[in-house]
Task: structure prediction
Amino acid sequence: MKMLVVLALALIPLAFAAPASKPNDMGVSWAVLVAGSNGYYNYRHQADICHAYQILHKNGIPDERIIVFMYDDIAKSPDNPTKGTIINKPNGPDVYKGVLKDYIGADVTPQNFLNVIQGKSEEMAGKGSGKVLKSGPNDNVFIFFADHGAPGLIAFPSEVLHAKPLNNALESMFKNKQYGKLVFYVEACESGSMFAKLLPNNISVFATTASNPTESSYACYWDAKRNTYLGDVYSVEWMEDSDAEDITKETLQQQFLIVQKKTNTSHVEEYGDLSIGQTFFVGQFQGNQSFSERPSGVQELRDVQPVIHEDAFRSEDVRMATLYRKLASAQDGERQKIIDDIGKLTRQQERVLNTFTRIATVAAGSKQLNSVFETRRELTNFNCYEPVVDVIHQRCFSVTQSDYALRHLYTMVNLCEMGIPVESIVSAINEAC
Result:
């Protein structure tokens, strides 16, 4: 009898033990999607983000674990002939329907984005949906950003996000165990400069970018009805791949190689912990696939060929290209306004070029102009470059609203890397502006 009592007492803890762990106890998927631009001519960035949302939603990531930043001025824009809809390829489906709009308009800022990915809910109280990442040490996080960029920065509607603060935030997330693995896709000109020689390979982050640190990314899919480009080459290639493939069997590395081969307008790059690309499936970041599955053996890459986007245009030239395309199909009564807009944009670009020339002349001397404008030095002196960019943005013109200005920020990289003191460059900016 005593033996039975002892046995019964021993079994009591088992009766109240936690249930056996389920596959999802290993972690879940979270995502943050960011369209950093505004203005109808930037239609493609919000179209990219809306399409990405539809992929994640279709693949089972619940809305409470997806956070979307977009200005939300495209679907209902007076320039949009199909009000309330956005498409991401010619004759494509509406990708705007049902999309989340956690942070719109003035809430689309670099600081809000950094607060969201670092889970700082107090800082986001009273802003948009207030949602932040609540991911933990076993969770996978997917981040996709689409907008304009420049050396060491990506643009938001009114401000820029510099590379160093972004990488610092990722390192902070790693130290605070806010993810198991993190995958970051970036669509922007010179987007490789956000991670090159900055992103550590030991913090479990795998990043791919639309371009290397010194070149443009490209828009594509001109739509004559909507008078705009519908997508960006790198973005539509990865998303159309996710739409077509079984992402529960395709590795991140396979997707990267496919997109890299299909994108012949720029050099798609990868950074960080490259082993993640080989050991995780796309569906474990762009879907709700169990994290317990792992690729086995060498993954065979299907034969793909570069895609010729005959209408592709460098991002910084899109605004002017759009005007000339509109002019070519305009009726007589519409032509003069478009011609006036072309003249206005031309004068704005001339002002930008003259301003950068003046800054370089004052800071480095006229004999150094060729060196400043005709070379592209690697950005290493962030302590000089970041404040210089901020002063230009505050004193001269909004770099976030001028693709042409973003394209000329490499000259400021050159001044900083030539060893010219930041005080001398700032003085030259104040004189030029």
Summary: The chain has a mean pLDDT of 91.
